[in-house]
Amino acid sequence: VSACANDVAVTTVSGNQFVSCDAHKVDVNVVSGKVHVEGACDEWEVDAVSSDVELLCTVAPTKKVQISSMYGTVRLALPDEIRGFVAETSGMFGCSITNEFGSNRYGTCALPIRMDTMRGQLMITRL
User: Fold this and answer.
1) Rounded to a whole number, what is the distance in angstroms from the first to the last CA of the chain?
2) What is the largest CA-CA distance in the chain?
3) What is the model's pTM?
4) Using CA atoms, how far apart are residues 19 and 78, in angstroms rounded to an integer?
5) Is 2's pLDDT higher than 90?
6) Which helix (H) or strand (E) holds 58?
7) How far is Cα 16 from Cα 14, in angstroms, rounded to an integer?
8) What are phi and psi of 104, to 5 degrees?
């Protein structure tokens, strides 16, 4: 999916997903398969059941970022010029959490970021 719109919603059952868009809000729901989402957006929501999820924010979001996958690796890449965020990350069953920005509270802006997985890896990286 490639789009420029106010709101974008993508829902699929299985298969690899590639979504590239500049929008106000993006909402992606996937049951299984690899998910790659990228672009400039104010608000991101990605929910997956059994998927690796990668979200590349080419411009710093302003409203919120929420990513979850019950089983899989979740990677959020943020641009270096992001003013700040407050990240809430949770994982179970030996989940590892990596944050290249250091603390879960970064900079002067309180952009809420929520990431979770039951089994996998959570990563916040620099773009």
Assistant:
1) 21
2) 39
3) 0.94
4) 17
5) no
6) none
7) 7
8) -75, -10
Beta strand 84-91 with 105-107 is: antiparallel
Q: Write out the E strands in 1-127.
A: 2-12, 17-32, 35-50, 53-57, 64-71, 74-78, 84-91, 96-99, 105-107, 111-119, 121-126
pLDDT tens digits for range 93-112: 778 899 999 888 999 888 99
14: Cα separation from own chain's centroid? 19
CA distance 99 to 114: 13
For residue 65, which of 6, 74, 15, 17 has the smallest C-alpha distance? 74
8-state DSSP, 94: S
Residue 116 · residue 122 · CB < 8 Å: yes
> Tokens at residue 70, please?
């019950």
Identify the residue whose tokens are 């059941």.
49
Nearest Cα to 18, choosing from 32, 39, 35? Answer: 35
Ramachandran class of 12: left when φ > 0, alpha when ψ lies in -120 to 50, beta otherwise? beta
Whether the CA torsion 57, 41, 12, 97 is positive or negative: it is positive
Give the C-alpha separation, 116 to 22, whole Å: 24
